[in-house]
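My current task is to audit a protein record that another person submitted. Alongside the sequence sits a line of tokens, each denoting a local backbone shape. Where you disagree with what is written, explain briefly why. This is what I was given:
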Amino acid sequence: MVHPTVQDFTVIGINHWDAPVEIREKFSLGSDGKSLLLDGARREGVESIFTVSTCNRTEVFAMGVSTRELIRLLTTYSRGTLDEFHRYGFEREGERAVEHLFKVATGLDSQILGDLQIVKQVKEGYEYAASEGMVSGEMHRLMQHVFRAHKRSRNETSLGQGAATVAYAAVQFAMRTFDNLAYKNILLVGTGKIGKVTCKNLVNLGASKLTLINRTRDRAEFVADKFNLEVADMEHLPEQIADADLVIVATGAIEPVIRTEHMQPSMENPKFKVMLDLSVPRNIDPKVASLDFVDVANMDMLGDVTDEAYKKREQEVPNVKKIILEEFADYQLWLNEQRVVPTIKALTRKFENIREDELDFFKNKISDDDYDKVENLTRRIVNKIAAYSIEHLRDHHHSDEVADMVSKMFKLEAKNGRK
């Protein structure tokens, strides 16, 4: 088996750049979908693969798998079709695939530049696949460099400074319509990761008439207690919508949480309201947008939210790209060096076997007092001789000829990583 190279990496996916939300939600993978996809990949002999599925993207990263096979896996275990993928999806191989992974994890490929949430979502996808034994050593090492690039982008640049997340963009979107949130009735449905951050942003902007609803009431109460807010039960959702000026929905439901029947009390006494859907799949039925007094916005409408902090982030993009190039180069060096690791191990083993055989031959001719000294001396000699060969192999890790020559010279069992 030839040792893996950068050219073995592939990625395919659907994201916010080319696919509208109604397409992205079809390809979205919940926890069950991710598990089924990994199981399917395992049955087909795939050894290294993980998925990232967020409100803005569903992407599959792998090693040693064709993009065609990845596309088939994604369309098999999601609701998206092959025709839809070919129209809206993307596929990349080799260096372009690895570069894309770096850009995603550092937030350069996010709808909200430098999004703080994306690296957590990448990490969750990678760690889940690793726990299932579906991540190779080469992929593990790559992810170390990917996460290091993210950390450096936060420590060495100002990309992570200021608020620029989906939750922040949602609140900024609302502020365009309502100059002051202090006196507006706000309903937040969903108190998961995005919901909690959105809640905090609303409170920081002066919102006080804020009510939380979650399918699990305890979770809503936990968040509400931190900010002294009201909590309502899910069965009172229609009445709460009717009272609200602003409704923000951010749940992990795979079906709409707010449907037309929930709007009945609002239709009986209509008043203008903004409804923001931060979920993929969408949690507000698209039919709700047909109501005259409702302005419904989804994820696709948040991409143009900019402010001073965001503009500063844009200025840091070249610096982050430089960090990515450095980490990518370090990984490529490590990966290339792995080509000669089997030869180095075989050479070391060969020298040690020779040393032990010769030492064993003279064992009875050496006093016990001198044996330890002789053993130590022979080990030092062998290590120094091996060091020169190992250094030469590492310096010429790009060349198979050097490794082959060393293998033939010392009659080694391993040849340049091939079995």
